Amino acid sequence: MFEIGKVYYMTDWFTGGVKRLTCVKRTESHAWFRVTSTELDGAYITNEDFEIKRTDGGREYVLIYEYHGKENRLYGSEEWV
Questions:
Q1: Residue 16, phi then psi, degrees to nearest 5
Q2: Sign of torsion, CA 58 63 64 70?
Q3: How is the chain split into domains, by residue range?
Q4: Hey, which residues does 66 pair with through a beta bridge?
Q5: Which residues contact 10 (CB under 8 A, 6 or more apart)?
Q6: CA-CA distances (angstroms) from residue 6 to 9, 34, 36?
Q7: Residue 24 and which of 7, 30, 48, 71 are 20 to 30 A apart at CA?
Q8: Are the C-beta atoms of 23 and 33 separated by less than 8 Å?
Q9: What pLDDT, in 10s, does the model give residues 43-76?
Q10: What gap in Å lies between CA 18 and CA 43, rounded to an integer?
Q11: Is residue 31 packed enough to be buried (19+ CB in 10 Å), middle (13-18) or exposed (0-12)?
Q12: For 8-18, what is each residue's pLDDT tens digit?
């Protein structure tokens, strides 16, 4: 489950930079994140929202991007609902 205030980390598939996603708001269907990207040329802060999806087992995730049919997902927790 995505929790407000919790920080999630991932690596950018293209640049290799680290993204820090802080959950700032959520509803049953959407999660809003403050995204801080650290790249070679500096740090960037954006705000992004994603639709919350669930696996067949009920585990929450957001789809960060899809490339050639391969999904890059961010899971809300390691716990199964």
A1: 80, 0
A2: positive
A3: 7-75
A4: 71
A5: 18, 19, 21, 64, 72, 74
A6: 10, 11, 14
A7: 71
A8: yes
A9: 899 999 999 999 988 899 999 988 899 888 999 9
A10: 10
A11: buried
A12: 998 877 777 88
Token code pair at residue 21: 């996603």
Single-letter residue type at 1: M
The two structure tokens encoding residue 56: 């067949």
Residue 36 structure tokens:
């801080």
Distant-in-sequence contacts of 52-60, Cβ < 8 A, 24+ apart: 52/2, 52/26, 52/28, 52/76, 54/81, 57/81, 60/1, 60/2
Amino acid at the residue 24: V
